[in-house]
Amino acid sequence: MPSGIYRRFVWAGFILIAIILIGTVGYWFIGGGQYSFVDTLYMTVITITTIGFAEIIDLSGSVGGRIFTIFIAVSGVGTMAYIVTNLTALIVEGQLTESFRRRRMEKIAGSYKDHYIVCGLGRVGCYIANELRATRRPHVVVDVNKSSVGSCLESLPDEVFIEGDATDSDTLLKAGVEKAAGLFAVAGDDNQNLVVSLTAKQLNPKLRVVARVNDMRNSQKMKKAGADAVVSPCAIGGLRMASEMVRPTVVSFLDTMLRDTGMNLRVEELPVPESLVGRPISALNLKRCSHALLLAVKTGDNWVYNPSESYVIAQKNTLVFMTTPEGRDELAGFLRE
């Protein structure tokens, strides 16, 4: 339940309980202590609820008792009406449904492991979420205002969305940052992305953080704050435009690969387990996976492109493939055998 509504119900509940206690004690004094607790409580309840049953305590000769009853009736009925009105508004306006939705989203996010968190669902964040969805990677989206990103959420049905400030530790904990594999800090403000990176790394030092930067002068600050990689949309956009001019066929190929929902090809990476160190590429029998093409092997800071079947796998090698999401999972299974 949203905190504002929760506080209103709590305060109204306290006031109602106080009125009932005051009424019960007051009627006991008015009755000269001759009536039991149940009788005085009953008198208070029928007054507040305006049921209209016969009075247990005779107030015909007590002016003070009648004035007290008026006070209890007006304050009690007003409080009851306030509670009922807020409850009706809560249901009619869908806030109760929204509260349940938030709890369900938080429960789903809490069950994830090795997932990704996208902080900021603007234009850049929307593309990231679409790519994670297309490649079947579990992820959680975090943004401070759901209404401002409604158009993006419409294109992402059943998205796990946490509404809150990503610079707040509690929000990131709800998104499962302690068990996440990576986090994208892609708000439109560099200062906010810096704080998100710093907060996320404090909560999970093993987390890989990729941060957006608008001013390249902030790149080093972002890395010192905890970002493992910094990306400038402006720089990427400039490189893309240059590529469109000088190598249009290559760009067309990459665009077709990314937009082809049938094949859904991507360039993926898979680490090589210790059990395969010292064995040649041929031992992997990659021909078993018809939808995978080995492009390169990363060896520390160096690369071996189009490795031969006799290439011997070294420690901490990473294999780079062109494959589908299904092929990626299949390859991961082969490497674990």
Fold and architecture overview:
It is a single chain. The chain is an alpha/beta fold. The chain has three domains: 3-92, Helix Hairpins; 112-237, NAD(P)-binding Rossmann-like Domain (Rossmann fold, 3-Layer(aba) Sandwich); 263-336, 2-Layer Sandwich (Alpha-Beta Plaits). The protein has helices at residues 3-30, 37-48, 63-92, 95-111, 123-134, 150-154, 169-174, 190-203, 219-224, 233-246, 248-259, 325-336, and strands at 116-119, 139-143, 161-163, 182-185, 208-212, 229-231, 266-271, 292-299, 302-305, 318-323. The protein has a six-stranded parallel sheet with strand order 3-2-1-4-5-6, with helices on both faces. The chain has a four-stranded antiparallel sheet with strand order 7-10-8-9, covered by helices on one side. A hairpin with a 2-residue loop joins strand 8 and strand 9 (302-305). Helix 1 (3-30) crosses helix 2 (37-48), helix 1 (3-30) packs antiparallel against helix 3 and helix 10 packs across helix 11. The model has no long low-confidence stretch (mean pLDDT 85).
